[in-house]
Specification:
The complex is a heterodimer of chains A (150) and B (449).
Chain A (H helix, E strand, L loop, with lengths): L6 H34 L7 H12 L7 E2 L2 E2 L9 H4 L6 H13 L18 H15 L13
Antiparallel strand pairs in A: 1-2
Chain B lengths: L7 H28 L10 H32 L6 H23 L13 H23 L5 H16 L10 H36 L3 H22 L13 H11 L1 H17 L7 H24 L3 H7 L3 H30 L7 H36 L3 H6 L2 H26 L19
Helix pairs in contact in B: 1-2, 1-3, 1-15, 2-3, 2-4, 2-12, 3-4, 4-5, 5-6, 6-7, 6-9, 6-10, 6-12, 7-8, 7-9, 9-10, 10-12, 10-13, 12-13, 13-15
Classes of the chains: A mainly alpha (150), B mainly alpha (449).
């Protein structure tokens, strides 16, 4: 093997192979990008409210306690399917009131239970966030999570 | 220390060690909140502590890589660093950015993409620092001798800096956001950082074992080839459930299975080089960290990664404590331990002193490694139970978490061992001056000599 695989051959395989895989990956990325826009997230329009809700989500760093589609911290419940779990996926009004009630009842102060901080949010921000969560929930995630528990 | 400008690395290592201290203390705090959830809940919420824990880790590892590059490139290229002044400016920018980020997290100013929460000005600062670094180190290499080690190291550092551009791209569509976010996160730790790791490991083994450079460099190219061939399409294992096409389940499963190979090769490489090597280098602690790093990386990144990478398994385990177990051992083995190996090797030279306080240093290795291994085991058990109760039986998250509390208590204990080990490492590297507690044995006689 020592004679066949010289250092310069190993180097050439490394460079050539890497370029090949980068190209394949780039092609699949383009296809995936289209699939997301046209198919998997097309069930609900990406409205201004949803976009605003995503900013609310980011500004409060929700991801560092919760997970969303399974990604994030694992300190608090999964929220990618929370509107299904709450039974409000099809009703913007119910989603808003449910979320508002939840956020405004925090922190629970129960001893020995994880505490969610109290976030001061306008009704517009809460409505945007609930729309964002409804939007995330309608994404075709290949059947994940396995059940409503998330 | 052969070149005066290698001294730059000293300041990078100091900064890295300071952040390492902050990172593990942040981790300990977060671990305590799992045990006692009301602790600090109004003053310093969990999400802020976690941001400090993860961000400090990433920045100190990068500082360590930069420091390692400034240390080893002059030796490899056989010339001084192109501009030590630029290297110091780069360090100042990174430190100002880091302190700025931590400060703004504490007052509630941050982004909301995991690990990329830095305010925009800090992100630009990192970009500027990266450009300064790349110019500086590339000019050094181009005007000196070029070796496979510097080739691979530079390629890794160039690519990871280019990928940082995706930190600025945040699509409004959540699924697209997630897809491009992985271009930074996955293609850093499971592709480009592996190049940096392999190059640094090759340098250390070359110095510590005295094996022929031709042999080391051929191994290096084979290792990094397997890293990129598996790691690039292996990104697919993050694309299973975030709204991307179903074919990623097969592409991700197959290619991320191959991701075990580079870590297996790095471990084999380290041990084979030590067996073949004829040099009896006095810095045994650096050797321990090098072997330890490649071994723990194989288990943490390789074995624990494979454990939940197949899509049929991941469907149930995704986003549970299994992921946390894997994340901790993989980062510790591959990148923390490797950085500590370089620090252990370089610091005595940079401070122009021996002995190395090897006993304390090695004790810190076993404390940290033992603690991390224990943490990984208990989180794996916790994750297994969580997966079953929540994903199979369908019980609610908070109910399941309450039944895991004994594991979180044990995780805190393991974390405390890691913190003590980390502080011991810092102490033995920077403070301890006493001569060796145990005198080193005489060199092993080489058969036939």
């Amino acid at each position: 093997m020592a004679e066949i695989l010289t250092k310069s051959r190993a180097r050439n395989i490394f460079y050539g192979g890497s370029i090949f895989f980068v190209l394949v990956f780039a092609g699949m990325t383009v296809q995936s990008h289209r699939y997301v826009v046209q198919t998997s997230t097309a069930g609900m329009p990406l409205s201004e409210e949803v976009v605003r809700g995503k900013h609310v989500w980011e500004r409060n760093s929700c991801i560092n306690c919760h997970s969303l589609h399974g990604e994030g911290a694992y300190f608090a419940p999964e929220l990618g399917n929370v509107t299904t779990r709450w039974g409000v996926q099809d009703s913007p009004e119910d989603a808003f009131f449910m979320l508002k009630g939840w956020i405004e009842s925090q922190p629970s102060g129960i001893e020995g239970r994880r505490q969610m901080p109290r976030y001061e949010m306008s009704d517009e921000d809460i409505r945007a966030l609930s729309e964002f969560l409804r939007w995330a929930d309608q994404t075709d995630t290949q059947g994940w999570p396995p059940n409503d528990a998330g | 220390m052969k070149y005066e400008s290698q001294k730059v690395a000293y300041w990078y290592i100091l900064a890295a060690l300071a952040l390492f201290g902050i990172q593990v203390l942040g981790g300990l705090l977060a671990g305590w909140i799992y045990v006692s959830p009301n602790f600090l809940s109004e003053l310093l919420p969990f999400n802020v502590i976690r941001m400090i824990h993860t961000n400090a880790l990433i920045v100190w590892l990068l500082l360590g890589f930069f420091g390692a590059a400034y240390f080893l490139v002059p030796e490899e290229s056989e010339r001084e660093i192109w501009s030590p002044k630029l290297a110091y400016i780069q360090l100042v920018i990174l430190l100002v950015g880091t302190l700025g980020a931590v400060g703004s997290y504490l007052v509630g100013i941050h982004g909301g993409r995991e690990f990329l929460e830095q305010p925009l000005w800090v992100k630009f600062g990192i970009l500027v620092a990266a450009v300064i670094f790349l110019v500086n180190i590339s000019m050094t290499v181009l005007s000196g001798k070029r070796t496979a080690i510097t080739n691979v190291l530079l390629m890794g550092l160039w690519l990871l800096s280019l990928l940082w551009i995706f930190a600025f791209i945040n699509p409004e569509n959540l699924s697209l956001d997630k897809m491009y976010w992985w271009f930074v996160v996955h293609l850093w730790v499971e592709a480009t950082w592996e190049l940096v790791m392999a190059a640094i490991l090759a340098f250390l083994l070359l110095k510590l074992t005295g094996v022929d450079r031709e042999v080391v460099e051929k191994w290096l190219y084979v290792i990094v080839a397997t890293a990129l061939f598996s790691g690039i399409l292996g990104t697919g294992h993050h694309f299973y459930w975030i709204g991307l096409p179903g074919y990623w389940q097969w592409v991700g499963s197959i290619f991320s299975t191959f991701e075990v190979i580079p870590f297996f090769l790095m471990m084999s490489f380290a041990f084979v080089m030590v067996w073949k090597g004829r040099k009896n280098h006095p810095n045994k602690a650096a050797l321990l960290w090098s072997l330890g790093s490649s071994t723990v990386a194989f288990f943490g990144a390789g074995v624990w990664g494979f454990l939940h990478t197949l899509h049929g398994v991941n469907f149930y385990s995704h986003g549970t404590q299994i992921t946390a177990a894997h994340g901790h051992l993989a980062f510790y083995g591959a990148y923390v331990a490797l950085n500590l190996a370089v620090f252990t090797y370089a610091m005595p030279m940079l401070r122009e002193r021996a002995p190395y306080n090897q006993v304390l240093n090695m004790a810190s290795f076993w404390l940290m490694t033992g603690g991390m291994a224990f943490m990984t085991f208990v989180l794996t058990f916790a994750g297994t139970i969580q997966t079953h109760m929540q994903r199979v039986v369908g019980e609610y998250y908070m109910d399941v978490q309450e039944s895991l509390s004994v594991f979180y208590l044990m995780r805190f204990g393991a974390g405390a061992a890691v913190v003590i080990g980390a502080l011991l490492f810092i102490y033995s590297t920077l403070v301890a001056r006493r001569s060796e507690i145990i005198a080193p044995g005489s060199a092993n006689p080489v058969p036939g000599e």
